[in-house]
Amino acid sequence: MECKFFIYFLSLLIFFTDDLIGERKFFPNLPVGEYKLKFHGAFICNESINYPLFYNMHTSRVSETKTVLTGKYIAKIPFDDSLTLDLNMAVLDTVGGWKYNAFVYRHSNACSRLKKFMGEVWRTYLHSYEPISSDCPMGIGNYTMNGFDLSLLEKFNFPKQFYYGIYKLKIQYINKEDVPVGCLYIVLQFTRPWEYNV
After folding, report:
1. For residue 70, what is the domain's CATH number?
2. Which residues contact 109 (CB under 8 A, 6 or more apart)?
3. Which residues constitute the domain of residue 88?
4. 60 in a structural domain
5. What stretch of H or E contains 126?
């Protein structure tokens, strides 16, 4: 009899506790899913190399949720479709080292491919430079980037679900002789949407 009473009491407790708590929110801890991006920095790949496409970029946090890319871009050669776009992402592992080639993308026609990859953000990207470039190819000259909003990267033609973690994205442009002519690192974090402001 005592056992039946205990089970009955436990059932009532569970039933009413669920009603008092209300709707439970389930936050799965899966390794992949929809994401929000956090940016930790941007820097040149190798300062000792004088790249023909020289990116001296850095990130600036202008609000709690907005990070912009600013800096100088010096083009001694045109950025056009004679170059190859090479993207390589390294993931930060659990012991603090980088595991390279976590995501690799390489395609010819760098300017057109970057334009397609950026999608609707392409025009905003070009208008963040001074002087403003109109389209592919970007000509020779000295450009100043006046705050490209990096949150727009979420609108790129990139998978809308990805593996969570911190990545070091290497953006590299390669000429026909297979020599890098421009290189930039961006360190970013793919976070779960409910962990974004934590």
Report:
1. 2.70.220
2. 81, 85
3. 30-195
4. yes
5. helix 122-127
User: How many Cα atoms sit within 13 Å of 142 on the Cβ side?
Assistant: 1
Which residues, other chains included, contact 190 with Cβ-Cβ below 8 Å and sequence gap of 6+?
35, 36, 37, 162, 163, 164, 165, 167
Cα 8 to the chain's mean position, in Å? 53
pLDDT (0 to 100) of residue 141: 93
In this structure, what token pair is assigned to residue 168? 């070091």
- Find the angle CA(190)-CA(181)-CA(48) to the nearest 5 degrees: 85
pLDDT at 65: 77
Token pair in block for residue 69: 């890319």
Residue spans of the chain under pLDDT 50: 12-13, 18-20
What is the reported pTM?
Answer: 0.81
In this predicted model, what pLDDT tens digit does every residue of 3-39 receive, in sequence order? 655 565 555 445 555 444 555 555 566 688 999 999 9
Residue 175's pLDDT is what?
96
- What is the count of structural domains for the chain? 1
Count Cα atoms within 13 angstroms, Cβ side, for 78: 11
Nearest residue to 90 via CA among 145, 193, 172, 29: 172
- pLDDT at 9 (0 to 100): 58
